[in-house]
Amino acid sequence: MDAVTVPAEPFQELVDHARETRVVVIGGGIAGLVAAWECAKVGMAVTLVEASDRLGGIIGSARIAGLDLETGVTCWSTRGGAVRALAEEVLPDAAIVRPRDDREWIAGLPKGAAAPLPVEQVLGIPANPWDESVRRIIGWDGTWRAYIDRLRPPLTIGTQRSLGRLVHGRMGDKVLDRLVAPLTIDRFGLDPVDVDVEIAAPGLSNALTRTGWLGGAVADVRVDAPGSSIEGLGGGMPQLTAALADRLAEREVAIHTGAMATALVRSDRRWTVQLATIAAAAPDRLHADAVIVATEESTARSLLAAALGAPEFADVAAAGIARDVVTLVVEGPELDTAPRGAHVHAVPGASRATGLVHETARWEWLAQEAGAGRHVLRVAFGAPGIAPATEGLSDADAAVMAAAEASVLLGVELDEGRIAGARRDAYTLVPPASTLGRRHRTDAARAAIARAPGLAAVGAWLSGSGLAQVVADAQEEADRLRHDALWGAAAAE
Description:
CATH superfamily of the largest domain: FAD/NAD(P)-binding domain
CATH architecture of the largest domain: 3-Layer(bba) Sandwich
Number of strands: 22
Oligomer: single chain
Distance between the termini: 37 Å
CATH topology of the largest domain: FAD/NAD(P)-binding domain
Radius of gyration: 25 Å
């Protein structure tokens, strides 16, 4: 009998190819960690370098008044389900939680008044201007002006991509200034005029054409609107980055902190990453078959400009606004009942702060850790074209200012003596994907990056702000890169 020859197993060849493919990820924020995980879990040899001394980027923690508190990102949007799936994959025992209180209020109304954000609204646009919850915010004159939109001839509808211009033209200044602007400025750092309706509120323009007026369009798109649209981790978001780091270590991913990438060069079909390091054990250069740039925009553009041979790539100014967030732990039994819900947005110009999040009202697990009468507040400063009011202040003075602003926003007196602990963090608030013109800007960058073999870039500057967008985008780009690296040659044949 002739001997049987067993052909080589295609899957094994792919496994071997993956192990021989070296990937360098530049940046250890959440986008870099996710991209590294996507490559490492298929067997690729991954090295991750991070310029700072810690991983996680915008996800962090700090010890304040005896509590381990989140800094930066504290939750995620449920849209798309990418973050929940990631958490369940790398942290299967984690408690994924929804807010116990997700009510929103508007503060800074005439005579220092405040009111709950109407339930029947989209981006602050009310479905029914005559509803009492709307009228108490925009007043009788605002209600009449908004109602006039219903009487317009259908032929005047047209197409308007700018949220601010759409609302101003159809419902007037009061709806724009007291309902829409507080939300877009506080949440996204965007003036309503710079928000793309088609992306921020999918279906609203089509509904406007069907119904003939903006309130009717809002009611139409809200028919299938979900309930609470955010989730978090019981115990805090830093668990996610810690779990990713652990999984990477299990896959033998080399992680170097204190290692800043200074140059990215391609030659002989391979990439070389030049590093400036502060750790003795860290290398000064790395060679790779593929590279994923996962830094903030200015650093990414600088590295990519040289890699792409396109100096003009680095000449584009990074988008975003400066924002300070002061986290306060305060003694305030009056806040136990969450008198103004979990999130208070300020009418622009009425406050030095853009708004605040009452974290112990929002999250049951945090309220239990803090204890009765003790509360965690995150007060935000910084709006489009306006530097944070806390800029130039000492941390102590910034905390006092934050407590004063919280007093106004919450309607509860919180003087300096109520502050048990505080921390100030400065960020560049990256615009969301719904920013007018952003798609053109990022599409141009993506196209240039995709032309270079074995190169990808991820992060909020490309995906838009928001953990859900950043994670989903990092997964998609890592998948594209690994597919090209593992299957590209075969596909070309």
